[in-house]
């Protein structure tokens, strides 16, 4: 009679064989089935890539720093040094960035903040002010304890225009204290536009905390815009990817890049927008493009999305300005593309200004399942930072520089897709470009 352990082994072997065979068949069916999840996420033209970009495990994230999110703000001085109005220019997110900087500078100078002035610009079809876009009472409530904010000036200053200060050369803490503070003390009411390249890292914590609080917790859209944004959000099929695609005539003209293969209508629109800004030619044009200075076309964008394993049936909300060119280059590959002009009622859309349209794109983008940008502009930075603030990390910036360098090397087809996958894989895994560093700290996973 055979020992008990031998009997067990005799029965175990066929059972294990049957289990392994069944498991192998299941795995084969999963991977070979055209309707399976793995099939949808695969990139057939990129050997070895069996997932989309969002399936990768990240090794680092940027999260809000505890020193401003959790700590009690430093006590405000008993007496203010005067009043500051921040004058904001450009598109909505540029103005938002300038205003956030202005809040930090005002706190640095121990000043009382007056509601900002937004530029009235025919170019942007814009006449809305701060209160038309953002909830003023909510902002004042959220900034309580961080900085003093007033809706109205004292009677002796109410009828006066502020003394304008040139902020172009002001970058650091002592620039403002040494050159702007005397003007504030003398005139009691000043205005300025913050310089784009602020050295916020040199600000004391109480000034940076005010900036961060204003930018990420203090600015909420008005009730009307929140309602319209929610309506637009609900109309988009879920889940969806928000794609900020920049390929408008003025954008291309400003880049000074040349393109071939565009439609006659697009070329005419670009030439009309150029004015005196002529495109680079010869070797200069080649160097400029290799540096990643040229906006991606919709067709190039679709190519990169496919190389990242984004399924062709993905629902895409197009966060873009008016006049987007060559859109067929995207929709010929990704057909489920939605826009605010197509989802909102005509009467609603036609009465909107540039800021309100941008506010809706911003609202949808920060709440989308994933967000991809073809540019690293003000909106992209603000959206990425706010998504990181909310713990939403499916955010990626497409690398124009990598695309240009790889195509200049003669890569195309499967090889180009494979290399593009590697570049963006590394960016996403390392959390590169996912948030603004001023108010965020890197967190290793």
UniProtKB/TrEMBL annotation:
Query: Pfam families attached here?
Result: O-FucT
- Which membrane topology term applies here? Single-pass type II membrane protein
Keywords associated with the record:
Carbohydrate metabolism, Fucose metabolism, Glycoprotein, Glycosyltransferase, Membrane, Signal-anchor, Transferase, Transmembrane, Transmembrane helix
Q: In which pathway does it act?
A: Glycan metabolism
Q: Name one GO biological process term.
A: fucose metabolic process
> Which is one Gene Ontology cellular component term of this protein?
cytoplasm
The leader peptide range reads none
Q: Which GO terms describe its molecular function?
A: glycosyltransferase activity
Q: Where in the cell is it found?
A: Membrane
Q: Which domain of life is it from?
A: Eukaryota
Is Iron set as a keyword in this record?
A: no
Query: What's the family?
Result: Belongs to the glycosyltransferase GT106 family.
PANTHER family attached to this UniProt entry? O-FUCOSYLTRANSFERASE 13, OS02G0726500 PROTEIN-RELATED
**Record-given protein name:** O-fucosyltransferase family protein
Provide the species name.
Answer: Spinacia oleracea
Gene this chain is encoded by: LOC110805382
């Amino acid at each position: 009679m055979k020992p008990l352990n031998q009997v067990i082994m005799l029965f175990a072997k066929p059972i294990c064989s049957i289990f392994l065979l069944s498991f192998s068949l299941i795995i084969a069916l999963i991977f070979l089935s055209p309707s399976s999840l793995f099939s949808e996420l695969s990139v057939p033209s990129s050997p070895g890539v069996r997932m989309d970009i969002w399936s990768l495990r990240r090794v680092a994230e940027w999260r809000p720093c505890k020193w401003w999110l959790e700590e009690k703000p430093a006590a405000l001085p008993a007496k203010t040094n005067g009043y500051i109005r921040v004058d904001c220019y450009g598109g909505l997110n540029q103005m938002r960035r300038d205003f956030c900087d202005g809040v930090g500078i005002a706190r640095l100078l121990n000043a009382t903040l007056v509601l900002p002035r937004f530029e009235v610009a025919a170019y942007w079809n814009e006449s809305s002010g701060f209160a038309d876009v953002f909830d003023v009472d909510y902002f004042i409530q959220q900034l309580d304890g961080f900085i003093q904010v007033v809706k109205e000036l004292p009677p002796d200053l109410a009828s006066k225009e502020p003394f304008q200060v040139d902020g172009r050369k002001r970058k650091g803490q002592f620039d403002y204290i040494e050159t702007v503070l005397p003007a504030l003390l003398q005139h009691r009411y000043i205005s300025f536009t913050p310089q784009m390249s602020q050295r916020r890292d040199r600000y004391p914590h109480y000034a940076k905390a005010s900036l961060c609080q204003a930018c990420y917790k203090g600015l909420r859209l008005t009730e009307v815009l929140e309602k319209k944004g929610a309506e637009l959000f609900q109309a988009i099929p879920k889940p969806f990817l928000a794609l900020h695609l920049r390929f408008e005539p003025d954008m291309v003209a400003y880049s000074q890049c040349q393109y071939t293969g565009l439609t006659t209508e697009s070329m005419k629109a670009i030439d009309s927008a150029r004015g005196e800004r002529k495109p680079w030619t010869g070797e200069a044009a080649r160097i400029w493009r290799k540096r990643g200075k040229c906006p991606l076309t919709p067709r190039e964008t679709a190519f990169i999305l496919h190389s990242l394993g984004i399924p062709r049936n993905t629902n895409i909300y197009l966060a873009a300005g008016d006049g987007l060119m060559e859109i067929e280059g995207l929709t010929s590959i990704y057909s489920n593309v939605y826009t605010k002009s197509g989802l909102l009622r005509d009467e609603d859309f036609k009465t909107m200004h540039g800021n309100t349209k941008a506010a809706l794109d911003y609202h949808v983008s920060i709440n989308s399942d994933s967000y991809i940008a073809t540019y690293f502009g003000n909106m992209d930075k603000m959206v990425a930072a706010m998504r990181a603030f909310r713990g939403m990390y499916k955010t990626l910036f497409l690398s124009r520089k990598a695309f240009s360098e790889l195509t200049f090397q003669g890569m195309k087809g499967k090889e180009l897709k494979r290399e593009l996958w590697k570049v963006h894989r590394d960016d996403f895994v390392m959390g590169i470009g996912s948030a603004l560093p001023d108010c965020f700290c890197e967190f290793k996973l």
